[in-house]
Design brief:
By secondary structure, the protein is mainly alpha-helical. The protein is built from nine helices and four strands; from the N terminus they run βαβαββααααααα. Helix 1 runs parallel beside helix 3 and helix 4 (163-178) runs parallel beside helix 7 (224-240). The active site is at 51 (nucleophile), 182 (proton donor/acceptor). Glutathione binds at residues 84, 117-120. It comes from Nitrospira lenta.
C-alpha cells in the first residue's frame, strides 16, 4: 500500500510533518519606519474561517475593533489542487480588491518565482500591490499595537511585563498543541503519529492543570497566548479528535479546558468568528488523503454557550 502525504514537500523520511516557514515577513509599523505605515483602508486581510492560523488574526482584528480600518475577505473553505479560491457563497466571496480568482495570484504578484504552498492569512497592501506578510504571528502583533491610533480599544494582548513568559508559552503551545494536531493528523508512519499524539495530550494535561486555579493562562486577563490556544481547542472535538486521530480524550472531557474554551467563546464578538460549517467542510472535504469519502460528520453535538463558571477564578 502506498501512503501519500498531504503535503509531500513538508514530510520527512520518517513520516513526520514539518511545516514550511512563512514566505513574507515585512511589517506594518505605526511610524512607517518599515516602509509600510499603519493607515486606515490601506491593508486588506485574506483569510479562511476554517484555518486556525488565520482565525487568530481575525480574532485580534475583532478585539482591537479594526474592522473599519483593515478590510477582510474569506476564501472558499474547499481547497483543491489549485489552492484557496475566491468564490461567492455563504461566508466567503469574490475578491473585492484585485479581482483575483485564487489566492495564489496574490503570491505570484508579490514574488513571481514563489513555489511554496499558498497559505492564509495574508495581508495585502493596496499601495504597493503586494503581500506584506503571511505570518499569523506577525499579524497578531501588528494588529495588537501598530494601529492603536485608529481604535478606541485599549486591549493589549502582549503586555511588556509578560513578554518573555508569553513567548515561552507560545513556543510550548505551537510545538505541542497548535502544530501538534497537524503532526498527528498528517503523519504517515505509526511512530511519528504516536509521538505527536502523546506530546499533544501531555500538553493538554498540563494546560488543564494550569487553568484549574486561574481564569486565563496568565491570570485574570487574557493575552495572545489564550487566543493561540483557543483556535485549536474550538476545532478539537469537531475535527482533530476524529479526523486527525487525536482521540485519547476530547476537550469536553477536561473540566478546566472545556470551561475555559466556553469562557473565551463567549467573549464579546468571538462567537461570530467561529464558523463550524467552514471548519468541518474544509478539513473533511479538502484532506481527501485522510478522508477519501469526503463525508462530513454531523457531530459533535456541543453547546459552547452554556455557563462556564470561570469568572469566579478572577
Amino acid at each position: 500500500m502506498t501512503v501519500y502525504p498531504q503535503f509531500p514537500d513538508e514530510q520527512s523520511g520518517e513520516g513526520e510533518f514539518t511545516r514550511q516557514a512563512d514566505a513574507f515577513r515585512d511589517y506594518v509599523t505605526s511610524t512607517g519606519s518599515s516602509g509600510y505605515p499603519a493607515a486606515a483602508g490601506r491593508y486588506h486581510l485574506y483569510v479562511s474561517w476554517a484555518c486556525p492560523w488565520a482565525h487568530r488574526t481575525i480574532i485580534v482584528r475583532k478585539l482591537k475593533r479594526l474592522e473599519g480600518i483593515i478590510g477582510l475577505t474569506s476564501v472558499d473553505p474547499i481547497r483543491d489542487e489549485r489552492g484557496w479560491a475566491f468564490r461567492e457563497g455563504p461566508g466567503h466571496s469574490l475578491d473585492p480588491v484585485n479581482g483575483f480568482h485564487f489566492l495564489s495570484e496574490a503570491y505570484k504578484a508579490t514574488d513571481p518565482h514563489y513555489v511554496g504552498r499558498i497559505t492564509v492569512p495574508a495581508l495585502w497592501d493596496r499601495v504597493t500591490k503586494r503581500i506584506v506578510t503571511n505570518s499569523d504571528d506577525d499579524l497578531m502583533r501588528i494588529f495588537n499595537s501598530e494601529f492603536n491610533r485608529f481604535t478606541e480599544s485599549s486591549i493589549d494582548l502582549y503586555p511588556e511585563g509578560l513578554r518573555k513568559e508569553i513567548d515561552e508559552l507560545n513556543t510550548f503551545l505551537y510545538e505541542n498543541v497548535n502544530d501538534g494536531v497537524y503532526r498527528a493528523g498528517f503523519a504517515t508512519s505509526q511512530p511519528a503519529y504516536e509521538r505527536a499524539v502523546r506530546r499533544l495530550f501531555d500538553a493538554l494535561d498540563i494546560l488543564d492543570a494550569r487553568l484549574a486555579h486561574q481564569r486565563y493562562l496568565f491570570g485574570s486577563e487574557f493575552v495572545e497566548s489564550d487566543w493561540r490556544l483557543f483556535v485549536t481547542l474550538v476545532r478539537f472535538d469537531a475535527v482533530y479528535h476524529g479526523h486527525f486521530k487525536c482521540n485519547l480524550r476530547r476537550i469536553i472531557d477536561y473540566p478546566s479546558l472545556f470551561g475555559y474554551l466556553k469562557d473565551l467563546y463567549q467573549t464579546d464578538g468571538i462567537a461570530e468568528t467561529v464558523n463550524f460549517d467552514h471548519i468541518k467542510r474544509h478539513y473533511y472535504v479538502t484532506h481527501d488523503d485522510i478522508n477519501p469519502t469526503r463525508i462530513v460528520p454531523l457531530g459533535p453535538d456541543q453547546d459552547l454557550s452554556t455557563p462556564h463558571g470561570r469568572a469566579r477564578l478572577g
